[in-house]
Write a structure and sequence with these properties.
The structure holds three protein chains of three kinds.
Chain A (H helix, E strand, L loop, with lengths): L3 E14 L2 E14 L3 E5 L6 H9 L6 E10 L2 H6 L8 E2 L5 H4 L7 E4 L13 H13 L3 H14 L5 H5 L8 H13 L5 E5 L7 H17 L3 E6 L2 H7 L2 E6 L2 E7 H6 L4 H8 L39 H5 L4 E5 L2 E4 L3 H4 L2
Parallel strand pairs in A: 3-8, 3-9, 6-7, 7-8
Antiparallel strand pairs in A: 1-2, 1-4, 4-5, 9-10, 10-12, 11-12
Helix pairs in contact in A: 4-5, 7-8
Chain B lengths: L1 H28 L4 H6 L5 H10 L6 H14 L13 H36 L4 H15 L2 H15 L11 H4 L2 H6 L1 H31 L2 H8 L4 H39 L4 H11 L2 H29 L7
Helix pairs in contact in B: 1-14, 5-6, 5-10, 5-12, 6-10, 7-10, 7-12, 10-12, 12-13, 12-14, 13-14
Chain C lengths: L1 H38 L8 H27 L9 H11 L1 H18 L1 H4 L10 H4 L19 H37 L1 H15 L3 H14 L1 H14 L3 H13 L1 H16 L2 H8 L4 H38 L10 H8 L9 H29 L6
Helix pairs in contact in C: 1-2, 3-16, 4-7, 4-16, 7-8, 7-11, 7-12, 7-14, 9-11, 12-14, 13-14, 14-15, 14-16, 15-16
Classes of the chains: A alpha/beta, B mainly alpha, C mainly alpha.
Chain lengths: ~350, ~325, ~375
Amino acid sequence: MSQNLLVVKDVAMHFHTEDGEVFALDGVSFEIRYGETFALVGETGCGKSVTAMTILGLLPPQASVSRGEVLFHDDTLRRRLRMTGPGPVDLLKLSNRQMLKLRGVRIALISQDPSSSLDPLYRIEAQIGEVLNTHRGIDGKKAKEEVLRLLNSVELAPAEEIAKKYPHQLSGGQCQRVVIAMALASQPSLLIADEPTTSLDVSIQAEILELMAELIRGSNTSLLLITHDLAVVAEVSDRVGVMYAGSVCEIADVRSLFAHPIHPYTRGLLAAVPSITQRKAEMDYIPGSVPDLMHPPAGCRFHPRCKYATEVCKGRKPKMVAVETEHYVVCHHYAACLP
Amino acid sequence: MRSYILKKLAIAVLVFLGVYTIVFLLCFMMPGDPVRVSMGLHSDPQAVELLTHAWGLDEPRYVQYFSYLKCFVMGDWGISFRYEDKAVLGIILDRLPRTAYLGLWGIIFSVILSIPLGVIAAYKQNKPPDNAAVLISQIGVSLPNFWLGLMLIAIVAVGLRWISPIPQVPHSELWSFPGFFTSLKPYSLAIITLGTGMMATTTRLTRSSMLEIIRQDYITMLRAKGMPEHVVILKHALRNALIPVVTIVGMQVLILIGGVVLTETVFAINGLGRLYVDAITARDYPIITALTLVYAAAVVIMNLIVDLSYSLIDPRVKLG
Amino acid sequence: MAGFSDYQQKKEPKITQQRKKVAAFLVCALCLISIKIFLLNRETVPQWGFRLLALSAYLGVWYLLLSSLYQGWAGSNYADRPNPIQRFLMRFYHNKLATFGLFVVLTLAVMAIFADDIAIYPLEYQAEWQEFSQLPPCREHPLGTVTSGEDLFSLIVYGSRISLGLGVSVMVITSLVGMTLGATAGYFGKGTDRALNYLNDVVMSFPFLVFCIVLVGALQVNEAVRETFANLAEAIGVDMHLMIIFLVLAMLMWSSTFRVVRSQVLSLKETGFVEAAKALGGSSRRIIFKHLLPNTLGPVIVLVTIGIGSVILTEAALSYLGFGAEMTTPSWGRLLRDANPYVTQPCYMYMVMFPGIAIFMSVLGFTTMGDGLRDAIDPRMKV
């Protein structure tokens, strides 16, 4: 356990909307270790981004977390919060003021749409400088030098010119590099990348991923990569968590997951990826559709679409079971699916 | 940059010409021969003919159209019927200081109140401060400002005797250094009357604009970067939200001019608004025409300033 | 078969519910008619206390009727997600300000329609000049009397006809004109669009109230206009000056509808369903009327509601400045103009206060209702 950086334990949260409660997360558990890349995969709307926002404490006011803990093992944070003694910090219990000592310093975020994640009215250097000033207390000439160093580190050249530009004058890929530079400016211990490449061209996607991997390799930073792109997952991640309708259904080593997925949903997901080597007459797909999170199915949330489902699945939530080392699954009938 | 300004300038000139054309056509709808009106009914027919010729009124209409335009641009706005032998330009310049004073403070009043109110409302969406701000702006929009003025006179000036109902300050004092602030007290009722409506519209706009900006990705990102809330809201969100607000404050000149007419009538202030109402009642055409064009020019120039100020606030506006 | 029996079970209570609803509706309607005939009638009940009682009973029944309808539609007992109409009603119902606005608007409508019965004295009534002019509020005259000796309450009640009638008629005309022009400009684009936009720019760069004043002033003194309008006004039985105000406002107020409809049509034109309709060979007329205009109705309804408020406000302002109704027409703005000289005498404050409250409340009613409609139709609508 000591090597864990972040432990998310059985988190459940819901949104209050005018049509009723939307149960967005229900029993999300996973852990991220020092220096590793952990990928969270799932369809759109399964609660990946919401999980990230829960960790950062940036949920909108109509959301409320009903149970669970997010434990963060970070001595720097403990020092910043003036806490004594060992042990993790439960991020869900921190006040907004305390969260300011965490966000951007110990946990940084890279968001989905790079071109809209920079304030359009300020120059790049001003925006990076602001981060440097807030977290590291440097300004003036020193800050300018640091801005150029950061821009160079994310391979933005010529740095002097880029620094003077406004966000709308940069391309999506360049914006994302700026965002990465800002995120890594104060050497966080966890970097959350929420679909960092979705809105970029395929050719630039690879570059950005490589850049992130390279920057992280140097430091001891962990990466939480949120994506729906299985190719990206296979490429960069060490371990993978699969999410379905607000809960985690399988966590495994990346090789183990792709070699022999166990949870029926994961199997369906992997089978649905078209492959050039095995041409099929028909595309595989998972029957049924994603449940309405306002009225989620009782028991296992996947049971209406699962071909192994029995009465047990309708009534009781499955627990997380370790089927082998580094491979956990949340299913009543995992035995039937073992290789 | 230059071509942007030129384009905006060309549009402004075109719009002004449109307004001028409408005003010109309106003049022919009003009855009465200006020559006869100014010389009296029983004047010498020969003198009438002479004056008609001298004023160019026997020329074809299109010639008159251009000659008046030329005169207007040159500042030769004719002679008032009512205030004999007084040049229209002189009369207007004489009344301008009071109206400008009232209008400027009206805008200051409305902006100072409305922007904080709108920001707080958006920040506390659907909570008591927001509901209060929405209610205040609804009331402000719906209050007939002339009635508000009358009630203020009846309650504050007559009932409580705090200030005199009619501001009596010599207009030379209004724009001098201490006078600019000391005249505030006698003018306060008029300023509140004029500013309330504008305050309400600006509050609504600031609120909705802020609400839209707060939902943007970069605001979430700023919070994720650990920026303190006051930096997120005041430095980033407000500056972005102010772009549409600037347009509206510029457009307020339209409402302002209408409000000035009513406010000056209520408080018996001898400004441009009252001059206009009096001129229409007395059918003093030179003043009506000139003043309408002055108003239109003010609006067109204000729009131009708003367009140009965009380029200062918003780097995304393409210059050229 | 199981599905069918389920359907039957659900359907049964719904029918009885509907019957109950119809029965309640009929009872309410009966109450309304009887109150109207027996209580709210000048001949049967001459005292204003009774009349106010009857009026409040009348409004109370209306309120009951509407709230029962609301609960029928907006009640939260739907099985799954609400449909758009339910959602609209629910949002509107939960918005207190909007419900208040609706109530004010309904009151105003009742006042205008039944003005003859609600007013205590007929329109032609004039008290004996010396004794009854400028009486403060008293038993016979709940809001006092004005300079000419007329009863202020009755005048305000009759005034609601003018305000509401002018507001509704102006907004109906201008929204029709604005929609037609906006759809034409947005759909066909090019020269038409440029020309209409230019016209709109010109109209917009006139200070609105000032433009109204100068237009009304010019039209009021023009011989030809006077003659035409005098004949027309006599034929319809409306104040000639009000008709001129109507004409002027109709000429000036189309631009807000125009702008909104045009921008909506411009953005809708690019959407998939319009392109699909075009690809299927739909004619321009069919696309405009079947696909584009129905989608702009939401904003237009909001604009009309808020616009009625601003028409009432403008009419009051024009009448206050002396460009509005004649002496015999009980316009609210004219009442304020008459009260203007007495503003410095505290004992005559009622003459200033009550007409102003009438203007303020009706405008507030229309703005809050319009805002509520916007939030209920689409909270992100830009109007």
